[in-house]
Amino acid sequence: MTRDDTKEKETLSLQRRIRKFSRIEKAFYASIIITAIVMAVGIIFLQSRNLQQKQEISHLNSQITQKQTEYDDAKQEVNELTTRDRVTEIANNAGLSNKTGNIQKVD
């Protein structure tokens, strides 16, 4: 027997085996293949969706940090504008007298 004869016999044997599969077996194997493909596509979709969500979270965190910085700057500016010396200066410019006991800071 030559090598080609052996390959032909193996091919014929395999073809007979495939032909011998019943419809139920063929449906079973087809469903396994389809399930594997669907799962692969699903995993890829979920991973890409996860990456998008992480990027969005990162973007939102940077916006939160930026707003927090703006808030802190504004709070610092308010604290600077409400110092006792500044209030006294504004009162003097408006022609009011400075009575130390009358000046109170309210938060």
UniProtKB/TrEMBL annotation:
Keyword terms, alphabetized: Cell cycle, Cell division, Cell membrane, Coiled coil, Membrane, Transmembrane, Transmembrane helix
Q: What is the lineage of its organism?
A: Bacteria, Bacillati, Bacillota, Bacilli, Lactobacillales
Coiled coil region boundaries? 57-84
Q: Which Pfam families match?
A: DivIC
- Membrane topology field: Single-pass type II membrane protein
Q: Where do the TM regions start and end?
A: 27-46
The organism named in the record is: Streptococcus hyointestinalis
Q: What does this protein do?
A: Essential cell division protein.
Q: Which domain of life is it from?
A: Bacteria
Q: Where is the protein situated, by its record's location annotation?
A: Cell membrane
The protein, known as: Cell division protein FtsL
